[in-house]
C-alpha cells in the first residue's frame, strides 16, 4: 500500500493548509516585497532632505534697505558745481561716472592698483575708486575732461597725441591726469624714490624719474616708452 497521497487542489482553493513547496514560495515573495519597501525609505528621505548645495533662506532673502539713504552732496568738478543725490558709500569714481556723467575717468581694477581712475583733488592725484565722494565736498576736483583749455588740449594731452602714447586708450585718462600731477610735483621740488638726494629737489626730470613717478599707472598694452617720451616732451614745453 502506497504512502503517497494526491494533493487536493480544492482544499488549497478553500483556504486549507498549503503544501510545503507553495508555502516557501509565498514567504519568499513576501520577504522580497518587504525588503524592497524598506530599501526605498532611505531614498525617499534623501529626496526630501535639503541639498548641501541648495541656497539657505538667508542667502535668498531680500537684502535690507540701506541704513544711510541718499543725500545731496555738492562737488566742485572741473570748475562746475554738481549736486548729486548719492548714498554715503558711493565712491568718487562711481559718483563721477554714474551720477555726474563724466565717463572719461575709467574703472579698471576697482582696487587702487591700476591707476585708470586717477583724478586730481586740489591738484594732487588720487585713485578715485578708493575714496568716498562725500569726503571731497568743498574740494576742487579735476578729471580728464577738465584738463584741456577752451580751444586746445593741454600740453600733456598734446604730447600724448603726438607721441602716440597709447594703444587701446582705456588707461589714457588716468595716465594723462597722473602725468599732469607728475609735472606739478616735480616743479614743486618733490623728490621720488629714485632721486639721488631726497633732501634736495631733483636736478632734472630724467626718464628714470618719470618712470618712477608714473609707476602707479599700468598700461596693459605696453606703451610705456611712448608715455615716458610724452611726459618728457610736456615737461620741455612747460619749462
TrEMBL record:
Entry EC number(s): 1.2.99.6
GO molecular function, one term: carboxylate reductase activity
Protein name in the entry: Aldehyde oxidoreductase iron-sulfur-binding subunit PaoA
Swiss-Prot/TrEMBL keywords: 2Fe-2S, Iron, Iron-sulfur, Metal-binding, Oxidoreductase
Amino acid composition bias (Basic and acidic residues), ranges on this chain: 1-15
Disordered: region residues: 1-26, 40-72
Species name: Paraburkholderia caffeinitolerans
2Fe-2S ferredoxin-type domain mapped to chain residues: 71-147
Origin organism lineage: Bacteria, Pseudomonadati, Pseudomonadota, Betaproteobacteria, Burkholderiales
Keyword tRNA-binding: no
Keyword Iron-sulfur: yes
Stored Pfam families: Fer2 (PF00111), Fer2_2 (PF01799)
